[in-house]
Amino acid sequence: MNAVQPAVNRPSAPAFDVERIRADFPILQLKIDGKPLVYLDNAASSQMPQPVIDRLVRYQTSEHANINRAVHYLSETATAEYEAARRKLQRFINAPEEREVIFTSGTTDAINLVMHGYGRKFIKAGDEIILTTLEHHSNIVPWQMLAEETGAAIRVVPINDAGELLIGEYEKLFNARTKFVGVMHVSNALGTINPVKQMIAFAHAHGVPVLVDGAQAVPHLQVDVQDLDCDFYAFSGHKLCGPTGIGVLYGKAALLEKMQPFKGGGDMILSVTFEKTTYNTIPHKFEAGTPPIAAAIGLGAAVDYLSAIGMDAIAVHELDLLNYATAQMTRMPGVRIIGTARNKASVISFTVDGVHPHDVGTLLNQDGVAVRTGHHCAQPVMQRFKVPATSRASFAFYNSMAEVDALIAGIRSVQKVFA
Amino acid sequence: MTNLANYKSLYQEVILDHNKKPRNYGTLAHASHHAVGHNPLCGDHISVALNFDRDCIACIKFEGESCAICKASASMMTVAIKGKSRADAEILIQEFLAMATGKLDLNSPNHIGRLAVFAGVCDLPTRVKCAILPWHTLHAAFNSVASTSTEAENDPVRAPIGNA
Predict the structure, then answer these.
(1) Quick one: which of A347, A345, A367 has its CA closest to A411?
(2) Domain extent at residue B38
(3) Which of A173, A374, A391, B135 has the fewest CB atoms below 10 angstroms from its CB?
(4) Which of A30, A31, A356 to mutate to test the interface with B (most CBs of B within 10 A)?
(5) ipTM for this prediction
(6) B42, A375: Cβ pair inside 8 Å?
């Protein structure tokens, strides 16, 4: 009577029907050299489901005009849809207020906004900025530019051999000069999920604001910015089944209001004379010029799509994929997984003995398997593990167990070619 | 559309063999010409060192860390270039770069010979730099340029080399 039943028979746990989900993604039907596409480069960019494509078509077909300007029907429609998208993103990350959601061109743009708007105003010579070894170049270079300009210093949180941040070392870095923390939520190169909530609480105890780079987290986890209590949270639309050229910066209203504008232009002003310009209120203060309206509306449709499936269900399926792939690859002689954190998102960086990652990538491509090869814009991580580059398979909720099998078979055939 | 037939044949036996057992691998003491080539996109680097005996390349060695395409290209380059005059070597450099970027008609007279196994790389734009790095480095060595890069201003993908 109490025998364990398969999940599909449990009415309380609806099955995650990956085949039904795959049917929503036209690009997954592609054949590469006659072989089905196995798209495992989702950490670089995800694919777009039909409802999002349809939304973009509908916008361009019957809703497009410039926003926040004219009184005519199309401008009002476009403005309403753009602001509706903002509210969808607000709900998606549980931001308290919609004015705390700023549309940017992506994560990089969002981080640069914080560097220019907050950093250049509040960080001075001798101040210290804490970053981590895991950071993507986009959360290193802007702060280096700021440090060069202001004379501030950058302190770096080290990692262990599993690719986990050393939290004890992080806490030791704090002192009276510490003025800012930048940390990624999920590592793009290794998949490590960082304990950002704990790190934010520690920083706040020292009165230090925290920017979280969430580019790799929002596609995989239910993110709640109020629960994290982060001061800034940045992410990109194109890793979230949305279009390229759109991203989000969440910021606490009190901080955003204190910050200086990043870009000057139309829409970000209330009034302009040659003597004085009065800036607009947030979020408009940070959205100079005509924004990517279509892309923002498309991203709104993308988070609707993801929310309908459920981020929790997505996380469960992706963890299944990760565990299945990890178990198989761990058993393969000559294959080394780089990044073995206890808490990981569905990213596997790996090396194959005696084969350069670029050769792995080119040969896998012959089997229709798309992986990323290179340093993943995280050269400090590569240096830490003493590898010039890795191959990286990153899974999305629309990947199947059969695709993991195709990856494993592909790696075996790479080893055969180089035997 | 990508010419898959070509790039499928890129990892041919001869390339895999040169990758596994690179010819003229190592350092050259008292080299008259030397250069280091670097591909910042993937961190690969190779060094090329050579000596002339009057007008001809008497000795040539290379070493470094790179993918199979780059290493095999370097190995086969050293074999092809040994004993040649600098002028003939420059012609071969030009022909190889043209082939790797899809601009060489292999049916017209050329000196490519066995190096034709790299023809397929022109269909893989991200891998072209792997194949041409050794040749770019050789050219730099002739001109006694101490260090070169596939991202340098005189990137052979973009700029002509030699007499072109």
Answers:
(1) A367
(2) 4-149
(3) A173
(4) A356
(5) 0.81
(6) yes
